[in-house]
Amino acid sequence: MKYLIKRVHHSLKELTFDASKLNDDFFASMATCSKLAYLKLRDCFNMGQLGFGAILRLDNLETLDVSYSSRSSFLTDLDIAEAFSGRKLPNMQTLRLDGIMKLGDRSLEAIAPACPNLTYLWLDHCTAVTDEGMQSIIRECLLVEQLWLMGMRQLTKRCVEGIHNLTKLQQVCFVCSASRDSCNLQIELQMAIPPWAQKHIQVSAS
Fold first, then answer.
1. How far apart are CA 106 and CA 134, in angstroms?
2. DSSP state, 146?
3. DSSP for residue 3
4. What is the dihedral of CA 15, 64, 26, 13, to 10 degrees?
C-alpha cells in the first residue's frame, strides 16, 4: 500500500481502505497526497498522534472518515486536540469521528475553529463528550446541516438549547436509549428546535 501511495500521490483525490494493520509510519507517508479530498479509513486501530496529525496536513480534504477506531490504545482526546490545534481546514465539510470513545471536549474545542465550514458532523457514541465540547461546535460551526449524536450520554438540556444557533440545521439524529433521562432529553431536543425548522428536523428514538 505504501508503494502504491508513493506512485500515485500527486494525482490521488479519493481513497478508501482497510487500515487495521497499518501504523503511523504509513499514515505519515500520506501527507504527500496533496490533492486528496476524500479519505475513509476503516478500522485504523493503530493510528497515533503522528499519523493523525500527518493526515490533517492534507489541506484539500473535504471528507475525513476515521469512525469506529475505538479499539486504538494510541489515539487519545489530547492527541486529537493537538492534531487539530492551529490547523486551518476551510475545505473540510464532512467529518466522521463516531465511535472514537476517547474523543472528548478538548478535541471538539480544537476542531471547531479549525473546520469552520463543516456541514456534516458524526459524533455517535463519543461518550466522553459533554456540553462544554458541544458548545464549541455550536458557536463556531454555524454551517452544520446534519448532526449525529447517538449514544451521547453526557449531553444535557444546555446542549439541546444551544442548537438554536445552528440556523442551517436540517437533521439531528439523537437516538435515545430506554433510560428515562435519555428519553427526557430526546423530548427536550424536539421542543428546543425552533418552529421555523421543525419541518426539517428528524429526531429518532429507539
1. 10
2. E
3. H
4. 30
**All three cell numbers of 10:** 500527486
Report the percent of the chain where pLDDT is more than 70: 77
Return the number of other C-beta atoms located less than 10 Å from residue 195's C-beta: 6
pLDDT digits (tens, 9 = 90+) for 126-180: 999 999 999 999 999 999 999 998 888 888 878 877 887 888 988 887 754 445 5
In-domain check, residue 206: no
Domain presence at residue 204: no
CATH of the domain at 133: 3.80.10.10
Residue 205 placed within a domain? no
How far apart, in whole angstroms, are the C-alpha atoms of residue 10 and residue 18?
21
Strands (E), the chain: 14-18, 38-42, 63-65, 94-96, 120-122, 146-148, 171-173
Structural domains of the chain, count? 1
The single residue listed with the C-alpha cell 490521488 is 12
| Residue 185 forms part of a structural domain | yes
Range of the domain at 155: 2-197
DSSP 3-state helix, strand, coil percentages of the chain (rounded to 5)?
35, 15, 50
Cell 444551544, located at residue: 162
C-alpha cell, 201:
428536523
- Give the span between the Cα atoms of 36 and 122, in whole angstroms: 21
Q: Using an 8 Å Cβ cutoff, are 5 and 33 in contact?
A: yes
